[in-house]
Amino acid sequence: MTTPEPVGATPARRRKLAHYGPNQLCDALALKRWQFERAKAAGLIPRPAPAGWPAPVVAELVEQAAEIEAAAGTMPDVGAHRWPDAQTARLAVFRWITRYNTIRRHSRLGQLSPINYEKTTDSLKIAA
């Protein structure tokens, strides 16, 4: 096994590292930082030693880089929340809709919730 070089290393900077920090490991695996963090959280990347990841461990991870990237995904979680299952997600959406339509006050409606506004106004009654 050969020790991988950091991506973009110039000939003057080429040197074999004994230990890799998070940035160097991320570069060696050619992962974006969010992919690296997601893979680390999923347990695909082992916890570092106090001095960082040793070169033999990095060499093994470089061989598995394609699998790590595939498991980490290609889309970051920007503004997204990951739910443990579909039922929990549906319940959260139901709670939000219920709060939004029944409890949350709207300034445009005179600080009334939409449900209370519909009960107090004649504008939404069906003409017979």
Q: Your description of this structure?
A:
The structure is a single chain. The protein has 128 residues and is mainly alpha-helical. It folds into two domains: 78 residues, no CATH class; 35 residues, no CATH class. The chain is 45% helix and 3% strand. The protein contains six helices and two strands. A two-stranded antiparallel sheet has the order 1-2. About 4% of the residues have low confidence.
| N-to-C order of helices and strands | EHHEHHHH
Coarse shape:
rod-shaped
Return residue spans where pLDDT drops below 50 for at least 5 consecutive residues: 10-14
The whole-number mean of residue pLDDT values reads: 80
Quaternary class: single chain
- The fraction of residues in strands falls at under 5%
Count of individual beta strands: 2
Over the alpha carbons, how many angstroms does the gyration radius reach?
26 Å
Number of domains: 2
Rounded to the nearest angstrom, the distance between the terminal CA atoms is 83 Å
Sheet with most strands: strand arrangement: 1-2
Q: Mind summarizing the main beta sheet? A: 2 strands, antiparallel
Instruction: Please report the number of helical segments.
Output: 6
Category from helices, strands and their pairing: mainly alpha
Helix content: 40-55%
